[in-house]
């Protein structure tokens, strides 16, 4: 199964690239959202 996927990656790398970029951007967005919420809501940081 992995050998078949490896062959497909050579022919059509976008099949795995676009979902990987989408996952990366989603994780980045949640991290930035969490940092922003922490900065806004944590009273220890404001001092």
Automatic annotation (TrEMBL):
GO terms for cellular component: plasma membrane
GO MF annotation, one: dipeptide transmembrane transporter activity
Q: What is the protein's species of origin?
A: Salmonella enterica I
User: In which compartments does the protein localize?
Assistant: Cell membrane
Q: What name does UniProt use for this protein? A: ABC transporter permease
**Residues passing through the membrane, by range:** 12-34
Name of the gene encoding the protein in the UniProt record: yliD_1
Please report the record's description of how this protein sits within the membrane: Multi-pass membrane protein
Q: Which UniProt keywords apply?
A: Membrane, Transmembrane, Transmembrane helix, Transport
The keyword Transmembrane appears for this protein: yes
| Entry keyword annotation includes Membrane | yes
